[in-house]
Amino acid sequence: xxxxxxxxxxxITAPRRPQFFVARVLLVAALLGLAxxxxxxxxxxxxxxxxxGPGDLARFGRVVFELLTPLVLTVAVLFSALFSAAAVSQExxxxxxxxLLLTDLSNSELVIGRLLASxxxxxxxxLAVAPFLLLIALLGGVDHWQIAWALAVTVAAALASxxxxxxxxxxxxxxxxxxxxxxxxxxxxxxxxxxxASGVLGTPLLGMNADDLAARxxxxxxxxxxMEPRWGRAPALFGIDQPVATGAESAAWFVGVGVGLTMLLNxxxxxxxxxxNPSRELRATPAGAASSAPRERVIAETxxxxxxxxxxxxxxxxxxxxxAVHHAGGQSRPVWDNPVLWRExxxxxxxxxxxxxxxxxxxxxxxxxxxxxxxxGDAAALRSAIPxxxxxxxxxxxxxxxxxxxxxxxxxxxERDGKxxxxxxxxxxxxxxxxxxxxGGAFWNSREMIVLPLLxxxxxxxxxxxxxxxxGVLMACVVVMDVFAAVLGLHAAMIYSSSRKAIGxxxxxxxxxxLGVSTCMRMMLALSxxxxxxxxxxxxxxxxxxLALFVALAWRNPSTAMALASFAAPFATxxxxxxxxxxxxxxVGFATxxxxxxxxxxxxxxxxxxxxIATGSQPTRED
Length: 623
Prior knowledge:
Elements: H1 5-13, H2 18-46, H3 54-94, H4 96-102, H5 107-137, H6 144-171, H7 175-198, H8 210-217, H9 219-226, E1 231-233, E2 243-245, H10 248-276, H11 295-303, H12 339-346, H13 354-376, H14 390-417, H15 421-426, H16 431-445, H17 447-462, H18 468-495, H19 499-527, H20 534-537, H21 539-554, H22 560-582, H23 585-609
Antiparallel strand pairs: 1-2
Helix pairs in contact: 1-5, 2-5, 3-5, 3-6, 3-7, 3-9, 3-19, 5-6, 5-10, 6-7, 6-9, 6-10, 7-8, 7-13, 7-14, 8-9, 8-10, 9-10, 12-16, 13-14, 13-17, 14-16, 14-18, 14-19, 17-18, 18-19, 18-23, 19-22, 21-22, 22-23
Keywords: Membrane, Transmembrane, Transmembrane helix
GO molecular function: ABC-type transporter activity
Organism: Botrimarina mediterranea
């Protein structure tokens, strides 16, 4: 069988777990809640609470389709990459990947089976969205072929991003390197489409319009083209020639590009899986043996050492043992009072290839910084609802927070998977030394992701794009969110014994907040020009988001502080959105610093008082 028993086992056992059904229900319920919220806003903004006819209903259906379909694409792409990278990294950390390599599984069965097994939940959830989109089509304004092409683009992008995460996880030894490179790769993929569409590389490019070329390589641009309401003739699909939207040609090209990219990445993974794994680590030769000595002679000398002279026997040494067998050679390095912090800062705890991650992040920073400088000269956009500098800075800040969060959560899940967490818990380390050591290591190793965005914010204040007070508020918000992201990663790693769940909940919580912010902001701008009465419309979404955060972050150790932080975060996010669109940036800062600062304290204070870490010593159904 081409897919193999790895996928077969997951397909058989996944329906036995409640999470498999909960994911689909939550996704469709969230979309339905957003659609109902949009209906409340739309009817309230139409005046008198009545619609003027089928035209308004069709307009509502089109706007909701254009608002929610990008959300489905974003969720599918991000979680496909996250799940595939986390699944392979967990197999490597626990050593089960080596056991799979010892079986008679072929490379394709191992790589493709593991990939499809990790993407099963995402693909099934995407399929569950189809009936919801078809219901929207009943309102008018949306054609069934637009829905078909939008789902095709989503599936192709999800497969390509999942293949990218799987390949990088098979290549890199450390979990953080795999997650970070995957996130940076996705950002560079989307940035490539935006750079092409901007015309910086030339118009036309490769014999075609820049927008058409961008739609053929970028999932975001391809989805936008697939949702175009214009009509025309598109290429036949599977021999069926039907009238579809003119943007379907670009969508069809992207589906082909996505499938080709998926095949290429998986071909590389299949060909190199046994070369990359296990990693080729240099092993020290026995004392006195030359480095160029043949392997057989070294083994022989190690197994059958020469009998020592009786006159040179020293008490305290084993027979045939060198006196310096336990000596590392060279000058020993002093260890700080906090050995956890010393290891995180003074050693390559996350591998030397972390420099590749930092170099890739530097590329993203340069692109976003240049885009920020360019937007500052656009005088026409300075009076828009969203400041022009916020558009290129938003992805940079999101990537920075995700990388800080990923580094924090993997710093503890790596200890658990490597069986060293139990050893740390048996030592005389205090909870403060362990938690603060891991936090300090996360901040030190991700210092570029923290300092560079702050420097870019300082540049905005230096050129006068923001006032001194607004600059202080902006930098305070960035620092507070960095600390929140790091503490959130450690909190998720402590309450979940499964690395995949810990990484998924930690990164997923950040993505939930960011996606909720962007979706609500786009909904407000698209459906209403005023903010009167919108709190009642978004109340259901706020309560549902708070309940979801409480279940994800406080199910193991519920507390009043965590409940307050969970339900306050969505409300503060809504308040910050409205204040941001109204230009009240001070209120945005107060809401962000107060809410997420309190949430940080609610997670950090109990962790510093005592060890309460899920070690995963007992087998669970999810493993």
